[in-house]
Specification:
Chain lengths: 155, 155
């Protein structure tokens, strides 16, 4: 299984970036995976939200191929960790298609990226900062892989 | 408003501990608050789950006074960030009672602590590691306080 994580720009909060690395290194011992920081809109005020999201959507689209796409979306489907792990496992045992997770910048994802997604995932009913969402996603992917591979993982 | 956070032991993962400090320092600029690491059961195998949870429950009980208690519990109530912020605000404008958040160790909280709680909160349908839960809780409390105080906070 190949997993990819796409999101605009490198994570800025130092501690969140360290944690991102922490979970990523663990995932990497279990599957082939990469994090791809895509083009980030810079220097634009939040009132240009449409423009920001369009620039970032174009950056993401450059890397969205024929993969199975799971977008993080706060109105997406909530799942238990067990259900999430079953979703990943079903992709694993089926097609050889890589699974690509796509998460937005601070304004979220453009409509057209959400439409392209094969699955929209909500991590919680609560809204997490976009950088914290990346970390929670990686932790859940790591947890899922340990379930699939039957390894133990701290609760 | 006084906020307290009780959980068994100091957070061990270095990056999660750094993040805990990051959000805690921000919360502390807005309200009076403290993190109280309570007694942690050490050196006991997981098969002694009942004993571990009892030792940790006793540690928590020493610090649970007449506060309004919100326990983290995966079968608790899920809320949006807006609803969570309204819950905190209602405590703020009402009684002068401190609000105390209680989170468990790696086995969770003993039944009697959950029964004592005034409110049981689930952060997600997903299961987060107990140390990540602490960080997500602090981030949500910080987010709520910025909403209540009308400050801006990164999405």
């Amino acid at each position: 299984m190949t997993l990819r994580f796409l999101w605009p720009g490198r994570t800025k909060n130092r501690d969140l970036r360290a944690l991102e690395g922490f979970y990523f290194e663990r995932i990497r011992t279990l599957v082939d995976c990469e994090i791809v920081p895509t083009k980030e809109a810079r220097g634009l005020d939040e009132k240009h939200a449409g423009k920001i999201m369009d620039i970032e959507a174009r950056g993401l689209e450059k890397h969205i191929k024929d993969d199975y796409i799971i977008c993080l979306f706060d109105k997406g489907r909530e799942m238990s960790s067990r259900e999430f792990s079953k979703l990943l496992e079903s992709r694993w045992s089926g097609a050889r298609q890589p699974v690509t997770f796509v998460a937005g910048g601070f304004l979220g994802l453009a409509e057209r990226i959400l439409e392209r997604a094969d699955f929209s995932l909500a991590l919680s009913k609560m809204t997490f900062s976009h950088e914290l969402s990346r970390v929670v996603l990686l932790e859940q992917v790591y947890r899922s892989l340990t379930m699939i591979k039957g390894r133990s993982y701290a609760k």
